[in-house]
């Protein structure tokens, strides 16, 4: 009861603008992160299909790669809007953190900004290359695209990892950071576990989302080479990475156990420090330390944390009530973590199902239930991505810089009413932006479907999009000497894919 009273007093002293600032940041981050898997992983999947097209002289693979590159470009344009809003919000909503700690961990944001700019240039070159460059030249100029995306992710995760395990500085007499060591500030203890867990999650999500589109087509009776290939390549990437992600996730959770024990206690609803700690699957933490509901598995939490029942797990009560998540925050972090783990386990079963059929029968699974599951796997991955960030951010409360600055100390002095109004404006703008994104993608899908139906009526060997009037190859107009120097493009000796490309 005493701890509850202390937390109540602390919450009463928080500034009124804290809640709207949190809600605004949470909304923009949750919205932006829906696009991140496409920005990080879709370039790699597109280039993988592009490489297959050139190596196997496969016009259908080339068509898929070109269509995916169009979606990639539209997504990147939307990401510019949502990412820019987030960048402004760091300074507008949390000036206390940026003003005091920006010199220590700001390099990560700088790296991300340069990588974002580089990715924009590379995307422009890649799109331009479909009509103007020789096939292999075009492909190799696209290879740096995934690397730029990974570099941008590195910058953001480096900044977030520093917020979770801050280092690389010394505090002077006034409590300000001095003697900054940039290398230590970037390569923090949580960087490796966070970064690889995040990157693999992005590749899994993009793979399952792209494959899900063609799984829906498969369920509707479209069993041609176009849908088979569009499903197989991205789904194989995601299926291979699924068990890898399970290992990386376990490693990341164990890193939290060692480096952020109070956050781990919130994730696992551990109230008091003890050994032989049980694992609760879901459940709700009460303010008095009791747990309502959920499935209790004796000793499992200690075993998972240290591989033996005698492992001592730090509890929430190991620190003062004002220095740990509230019961509600701990429950939110716990549910987010359990949802993430549950979906991960189900995806492993789906990946094993796929792998068994591919290895045993050299074919796709024939069950419609497999394709139903594959169709929703991408959406499930998006849920786990959101849950991962909720676990990371809510579990760290009340700290914005772990054990150095509270969220309430970093928040802006702008009036709460203004922040609520800003949240409303941002929600309207984001609804319009995402609506436009959806409309553009649906318009492209409709155009491609009409072109495919036209190709089928013409008896062509592969689906096609409406050929641009100036093109006579998948890579644009080319004189005879240029065609001879560049080699035949996929789809025939003349360099013509069946019906052209979108």
UniProtKB/TrEMBL annotation:
Biased composition (Low complexity): 476-487
Record has Transmembrane as a keyword: yes
Keyword Isomerase: no
BP-aspect Gene Ontology terms: aerobic electron transport chain
Protein name: Cytochrome ubiquinol oxidase subunit I
Entry's Gene Ontology molecular function annotations: electron transfer activity; heme binding; metal ion binding; oxidoreductase activity, acting on diphenols and related substances as donors, oxygen as acceptor
Comp. bias intervals (Gly residues): 488-502
Pfam (any one): Cyt_bd_oxida_I
Transmembrane segments: 24-49, 70-92, 104-127, 139-162, 195-217, 229-248, 332-357, 369-391, 419-442
Gene Ontology cellular component list: cytochrome complex; plasma membrane
Lineage of producing organism: Bacteria, Bacillati, Actinomycetota, Actinomycetes, Kitasatosporales
Organism: Streptomyces aurantiogriseus
PANTHER family reported in the protein's UniProt record: CYTOCHROME BD MENAQUINOL OXIDASE SUBUNIT I-RELATED, CYTOCHROME D UBIQUINOL OXIDASE
Location relative to the cell: Cell membrane
Domain of life, per lineage: Bacteria
Disordered as annotated region, ranges: 454-502
InterPro entries, alphabetized: Cyt-d_ubiquinol_oxidase_su_1
Family the UniProt entry places it in: Belongs to the cytochrome ubiquinol oxidase subunit 1 family.
Membrane topology term: Multi-pass membrane protein
Record keywords, A-Z: Cell membrane, Electron transport, Heme, Iron, Membrane, Metal-binding, Transmembrane, Transmembrane helix, Transport
């Amino acid at each position: 009861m005493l701890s509850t009273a202390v937390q109540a007093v602390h919450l009463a002293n928080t500034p009124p603008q804290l809640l709207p600032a949190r809600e605004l940041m949470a909304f923009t981050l949750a919205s932006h992160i829906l696009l991140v898997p496409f920005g990080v992983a879709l370039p790699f999947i597109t280039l993988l299909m592009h490489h297959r097209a050139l190596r196997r002289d496969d016009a259908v693979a080339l068509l898929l790669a070109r269509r995916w590159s169009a979606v990639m470009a539209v997504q990147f344009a939307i990401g510019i809007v949502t990412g820019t809003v987030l960048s402004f919000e760091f300074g507008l909503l949390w000036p206390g953190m940026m003003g005091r700690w920006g010199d220590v961990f700001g390099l990560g944001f700088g790296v991300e900004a340069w990588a974002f700019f580089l990715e924009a240039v590379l995307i422009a070159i890649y799109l331009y290359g479909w009509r103007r460059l020789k096939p292999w030249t075009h492909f190799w100029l696209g290879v740096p695209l995934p690397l730029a995306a990974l570099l941008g992710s590195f910058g953001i995760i480096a900044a977030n990892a520093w917020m979770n395990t801050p280092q690389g500085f010394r505090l002077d007499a006034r409590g300000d950071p001095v003697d900054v060591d940039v290398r230590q500030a970037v390569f923090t203890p949580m960087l490796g576990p966070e970064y690889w867990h995040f990157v693999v999650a992005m590749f899994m999500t993009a793979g399952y989302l792209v494959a899900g589109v063609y799984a829906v087509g498969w369920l509707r009776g479209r069993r041609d080479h176009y849908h088979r290939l569009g499903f197989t390549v991205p789904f194989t990437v995601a299926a291979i990475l699924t068990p890898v992600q399970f290992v990386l996730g376990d490693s990341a959770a164990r890193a939290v156990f060692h480096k952020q024990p109070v956050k781990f206690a919130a994730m696992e609803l551990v109230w008091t420090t003890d050994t032989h700690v049980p694992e609760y699957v879901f459940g709700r933490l009460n303010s008095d330390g009791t747990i309502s509901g959920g499935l209790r598995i004796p000793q499992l939490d200690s075993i998972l944390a240290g591989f033996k029942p005698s492992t001592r797990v730090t509890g929430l009560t190991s620190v003062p009530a004002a220095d740990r998540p509230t019961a509600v925050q701990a429950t939110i972090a716990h549910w987010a973590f359990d949802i993430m783990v549950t979906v991960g386990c189900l995806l492993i079963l789906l990946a094993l199902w796929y792998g068994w059929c591919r290895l045993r029968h050299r074919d796709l699974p024939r069950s419609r239930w497999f394709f139903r599951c594959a169709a929703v796997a991408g959406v499930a991955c998006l849920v786990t991505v959101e849950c991962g960030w909720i676990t990371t951010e809510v579990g760290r409360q009340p700290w914005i810089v772990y054990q150095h600055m509270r969220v309430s100390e970093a928040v802006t002095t702008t009036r709460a009413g203004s922040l609520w109004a800003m949240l409303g404006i941002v929600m309207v703008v984001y609804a319009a932006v995402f609506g436009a994104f959806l409309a553009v993608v649906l318009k492209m899908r409709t155009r491609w479907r009409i072109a495919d139906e036209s190709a089928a009526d013409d008896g062509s060997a592969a689906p096609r999009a409406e050929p641009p009037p100036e093109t006579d190859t998948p890579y644009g107009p080319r004189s005879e000497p240029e065609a001879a120097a560049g080699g035949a493009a996929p789809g025939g000796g003349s360099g013509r894919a069946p019906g052209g490309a979108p």
